[in-house]
Specification:
Layout: E1 6-9, E2 13-20, E3 32-39, H1 41-51, E4 56-59, E5 61-63, H2 66-78, E6 86-88, E7 93-99, E8 105-111, H3 114-117, H4 120-125, H5 127-131, E9 135-139, H6 144-157, E10 161-164, H7 168-171, E11 184-185, H8 189-196, H9 205-212, E12 218-222, E13 228-231, E14 236-239, H10 252-264, H11 270-285, H12 297-305
Parallel strand pairs: 1-4, 1-9, 2-7, 5-6, 9-10, 10-11, 11-12
Antiparallel strand pairs: 2-3, 7-8, 12-13, 13-14
Length: 309
């Protein structure tokens, strides 16, 4: 196991998930059940990577409030190093999700001041920590200037960098970014259109080619129930979705990326990395919320062994 830390940089949120009891209706109150859990894209990925036995440092924000106390405590229990995170009087970020009765996201809203705090000047002060990384994982809850700074840093220091686009509006922050040398970018089809600046009228492969032409090593496109595709300048691999019970889709993409990166750090092939990612997604789809606190290396190994696309 590589003992240099994975440094994850992104938002930490309290997830409040409302699962509707019937078909969503606009303009009225919808009966639902509420589930509260630890969330935030980079935080979720860091959580699973730590449970899988990887050394993980998380650069994020927690408020000096009850939500911040609870959320930081969840991170520490998972084994995440928070020494370089921010703790101040700004409120802890929150994400509210409305799910269909089937567990699919109908709408979501996020309130978070994280991007205002993590500036290039802040990151400059964390240079020593960033240089110690085996890999950088960043999400687009960061502002455009901070994203550009981190991409330049990873290129100059030759540290692999993976990016999770988070959402359609936030993926737009990478539209003009220099992606040369980036190890992995993980959009869904809607985010892919924004990142490439191209409509999908001729299929999504021109969008893929546009992003690969900007110097990206691997593009892993999530297609929901249709599975995913991993693309590079020299190869294209398609992976059907695993067959599994779906309780809640929240955090499935985050879990998939954690599985991929865990396998990548063990020097497994890109194909095996995707299979680990799909196996992780299958595990999280079966539970409520974005994290599986009972996760272990053996559990993932068994899920990979039993993986059925």
């Amino acid at each position: 196991m590589n003992r240099k830390p994975i440094v994850c940089i992104g938002a930490s949120l309290v997830d409040e998930t409302y699962r509707l009891k019937s078909r969503p209706l606009n303009g009225t109150s919808n009966p639902a059940t509420l589930y509260r859990a630890a969330g935030g894209v980079s935080r979720n990925i860091a959580h699973h990577l730590a449970l899988l036995g990887n050394p993980v440092k998380l650069i994020t924000h927690f408020g000096k409030d009850a939500d911040g106390d609870w959320l930081a405590g969840e991170c520490l229990k998972a084994g995440i190093d928070l020494a370089d995170s921010i703790r101040n009087s700004e409120p802890t970020g929150k994400f509210t999700a409305l799910l269909s009765p089937e567990g699919d996201l109908f709408a979501g809203a996020v309130a978070c001041r994280f991007e205002e705090m993590v500036t290039p000047a802040f990151l400059e002060a964390k240079t020593a920590v960033l240089k110690s990384a085996s890999l950088l994982l960043i999400d687009t809850n960061l502002g455009t200037e901070a994203l550009s700074w981190l991409l330049d840093f990873s290129r100059s220091e030759k540290i692999p960098c993976a990016i999770e686009p988070v959402s359609v509006p936030k993926a737009a922050r990478l539209k003009e970014a220099n992606l040369s040398g980036v190890l992995l970018l993980t959009p869904n089809l809607d985010e892919l259109a924004v990142l490439s600046g191209m409509e999908a009228s001729g299929g999504f492969r021109p969008q893929v080619n546009e992003l690969l032409g900007r110097g990206l090593d691997f593009l892993w496109v999530r297609k929901g129930k249709s599975g995913s595709g991993l693309y590079s300048a020299t190869a294209a691999m398609e992976f059907p979705a695993p067959v599994t019970e779906v309780v809640d889709t929240t955090g499935a993409g985050d879990a998939a990326l954690a599985g991929f990166l865990h396998a990548w750090l063990q020097n497994l092939s890109p194909e095996r990395c995707v299979i680990h990612g799909h196996a992780m997604a299958a595990l999280i789809l079966r539970v409520q919320g974005a994290v599986l606190n009972s996760l272990s290396p053996q559990m993932l190994q068994d899920a990979v062994k039993n993986y059925k696309p």
